[in-house]
Amino acid sequence: MAGLNGDPFLGIDDNIEKLQYNNNSKEAIDKEGLVVGIGEDSSNNKNNNQGGEKDMAGNSIHRSGSRPQLDLSKAEIQGNSEERDPTILLPNQTDDISHLALDIGGSLIKLVYFSRHEDQSVDDKRKKIVKERLGISNGNRRNFPVLGGRLHFVKFETSKLNECLDFISSKQLHRGGIDSHHWNSEAPANENAVIKATGGGAYKFADLFKERLGVSIDKEDEMDCLVAGANFLLKAIRHEAFTHMEGHKEFVQIDHNDLFPYLLVNIGSGVSIIKVDGDGKFQRVSGTNVGGGTYWGLGRLLTKCNNFDELLELSQRGDNRTIDMLVGDIYGGMDYSKIGLSASTIASSFGKAISDKKELQDYRPEDISLSLLRMISYNIGQISYLNALRFGLKRIFFGGFFIRGHAYTMDTISFAVHFWSKGEAQAMFLRHEGFLGAVGAFMSYQKHGLDDLMVHHLVERFPMGAPYTGGKIHGPPLGDLNEKISWMEKFVLKGTEITAPVPMAPPGTTGLGGFEVPSSRGATLRSDASALNVGVLHLVPTLEVFPLLADPKMYEPNTIDLSDHKELEYWFTVLSGHLPDLVDKAVASEGGTDDAKRRGDAFARAFSAHLARLMEEPAAYGKLGLANLLELREECLREFQFLDAYRSIKQRENEASLAVLPDLLLELDHMDEETRLLTLIEGVLAANIFDWGSRACVDFYHKGTIIEIYRMSRNKMQRPWRVDDFDLFKERMLGSEGKKPRPHKRALLFVDNSGADIVLGMLPLARELLRRGTEVVLVANSLPALNDVTAMEVPDIVAEAAKHCDILRRAAEAGGLLVDAMNNNSLDGSRGNSSSVPLMVVENGCGSPCIDLRQVSSELAAAAKHADLVILEGMGRALHTNFNARFKCEALKLAMVKNQRLAEKLIKGKIYDCVCRYEPAT
Ligand SMILES: Nc1ncnc2c1ncn2[C@@H]1O[C@H](COP(=O)(O)OP(=O)(O)O)[C@@H](O)[C@H]1O
Ligand SMILES: CC(C)(COP(=O)(O)O)[C@@H](O)C(=O)NCCC(=O)O
Ligand SMILES: [Mn+2]
What we know:
Radius of gyration: 30 Å
Oligomer: single chain
Keywords: ATP-binding, Coenzyme A biosynthesis, Hydrolase, Kinase, Manganese, Metal-binding, Nickel, Nucleotide-binding, Transferase
Shape: elongated
Helix content: 25-40%
Distance between the termini: 31 Å
GO biological process, one term: coenzyme A biosynthetic process
Number of helices: 29
Number of strands: 29
Bound molecules: adenosine-5'-diphosphate, the ligand CC(C)(COP(=O)(O)O)[C@@H](O)C(=O)NCCC(=O)O, manganese (II) ion
Organism: Gossypium tomentosum
Largest sheet: 8 strands, mixed
InterPro entries: ARMT-1-like_metal-bd_sf, ARMT1-like_metal-bd, At2g17340_3_helix_bundle, ATPase_NBD, PanK_long, Type_II_PanK
CATH architecture of the domain at 647-919: 3-Layer(aba) Sandwich
Structural class: alpha/beta
CATH superfamily of the domain at 647-919: Uncharacterised protein PF01937, DUF89, domain 3
CATH topology of the domain at 647-919: Rossmann fold
GO molecular function: ATP binding; hydrolase activity; metal ion binding; pantothenate kinase activity
């Protein structure tokens, strides 16, 4: 049968040297740089590794090229200044440029601000050459001044305006201002700064803003803003809208060409009902004064609650039958079935209070709160339905902070809409519910290019503490890493559970269709910040949809859907199990300093908090697939400034593999074409065993040297593989009955792991293609993830390999990969002197073991234009994601399945089975 059966080490001498994988080995890399503890999230690591570091060839690698100016005033060393990498606090360092828009409502102030961080990407030699060769210009950058920026979402209670002003002032958010000429450059403190603001407070507090911050408020119409915000979010964010019925949340795919018309119902203090026909085309058709302010205001009077969440929490334990008059109360326990009313239907909200001789204090606050919540939610649902009916609209989007991500509120509104419309109209909710107006105000800045952004330009990240909610510190203010870590440590000291950034609405279902009492959920509502299902929006206008996808609309990257709870549980257990080992590696990769340990600890806590949060509410961050979880882990590492946890492992494996490459190439060259092709594919599959993300594989790395494991893995390769289209592929490559097929013009090889995987697997395959006259583009990660090779690392590996192989050398020269080597050896440096087809390297735009082909780098998109073969390698890229992806060109998917459960589920096979799937162009 296929693959490796059982223990792959059967028959391997147990006394072999195990040094290669000694976990305790000291980091090979010497870092000189200071670690400066600033930056609120993942990619803000601009101050790390100032001194650069050495790669295996002794060349200096610069992780960030254009370094932003730092404000070093009042800089302070944190902790022990004798440490090798002491943490330095820069209190006066702020985000590079910030822009701010406000929605100052009756209850809450919503703040959307933009920070433009320096473009972190390095224009290294490889990139320059790739640009030249693939004809990529900086053209589309110019249209997007917001390149490399992020949108942050923050809210404060309007009654705590001062805290909001302090926040703005501490982050200097008012300095960027409206002057759109400055979008692209360092803005000086602006004397005549103007901030866009909407909501009543824009009028009411204009003078205060002038006085306190010296800025003028440019007032934007509230309805204009609501609509602009809703349209932008619905078009630009993939998982923005969702339905919520009987506790079940489902994201809705919005077709951009079929968005209008819709009804927008914004439930703030009051309620606005707007018919939206297009961008800037709308009409406020109705509204009601019974809204969020009514619930909160009346609720506060009746229950003496001190804050909104407390009131909402009470409702979860309430039973409204003690106060509401039900149909059954009037009909002596019977249904009024003739008109379709069950005995439990509310006939009159608070109706029981008239007949009783009870006073307010005789009612439980829990019951009052629930009664009130249902009264208001049903009422809004009903009025919304009537307006939808008036204009023949089927889709109603609900926004505003009254909803607060609260499952029961959404269920109740959905129930009302469904009930009254007899299922004709659909209630949908927005993840950025309360931020519509603020986003709209932000949109009203001219020339930021935001309206041109599309879904694939936006990446949402969930750093700890985002979104920030002012007032009580629920999360760390978006400030420096040190502060963030201290904040988390405090939580732990207090024995409080850390609230993941996007946080906890009560889980699960009400399951009761809205007319019954909510089941007691026991748990308390999480802190206010927790209820915002939004992260930080990274705007990356250089990302593109992979042009070779057969049908981008139908494309779903994730093979494993985690909405299946069993599946979710399984993967959560797996990832939790990996955590201790990963933290060890990460800490070691940063020299094992106290600072690194502290960050490692914080990372572990943060990632566990994410897992706990998602376990409770899987859809909290949008639709959840396995690829998202694996990426979240990498992002979380970066957030705590672990830039490359597997750095030394990768180096060791590269070196060991390069040492045996010449022998392998010699062996291959003695084979006939057919044997060689088979051996090459076997080699790729066998070498994919070097995967530090798989528990099973890591366990046996301790049992042998790299080369031994590689040999063993290859010896166990037996066809047929579990998925085996090799014969088809062979026919395409070699032809049949003496007919020679035309070679591929260009092949994109999505490479996976460092070491044997790339050196002994993918490079020899690339060489074969080159030899046949096919251009080869190696597609590698932009950022490290596990032991995956990155685009920055590949050229050096190729250069080493090229020393032993003419084919690779000529192709690499033709592809401009060996510029250094050529200069050093003072060979003829002019390009094009080689007759070989080129070998090139492009980055894929991501930093995860998986790849979502809807968002790839412009380099890759450009390289794809002339490609007629795509080879995806590895479990992450070919199985977890893209297993079902269809391409316009031929595709070959190669992977070893290194997880028992996945093997069973996906290919009805066993661990170590292999997949060789060949698909002709569609
Ligand atoms: N922390 C909170 N404090 C006060 N009200 C809140 C809070 N969270 C949610 N709400 C609800 O949100 C409503 C305000 O919604 P919002 O969309 O911000 O409207 P507005 O612009 O009128 O302030 C409040 O009336 C209340 O029902
Ligand atoms: C993270 C990975 C997708 C990486 O695999 P690769 O793409 O390198 O083949 C894979 O190791 C994985 O799914 N690991 C988690 C499951 C486990 O420990 O079995
Ligand atoms: Mn990998």
